[in-house]
Prior knowledge:
By secondary structure, this protein is of the alpha+beta class. The protein has helices spanning 39-48, 66-79; strands at residues 7-10, 12-15, 27-30, 54-57.
Amino acid sequence: MKNHITHCHFKDCKPVEGGRDGMNGGYEMQNFGEGIIDFVWIMKKLDEIGYDGDIALEYEMHDVPAEKVIKKFYTDFLSLFQ
Length: 82
């Protein structure tokens, strides 16, 4: 499928019983590095296939408005690769 990937959307989550309002079917959105998604592995695989397209970091936590934490959200993602 490597020739068909046009963009990637990243968000992190953890399993919870019932999920938030049933919207995530048993998953709760988390800040990067606090959930179960292995972004280092994903980025390694994307590098291996030569992916050079866009990556969208999706903020879907509703407890704190994005404008209050978006910079930390972004830097937390970058810190996974240091």
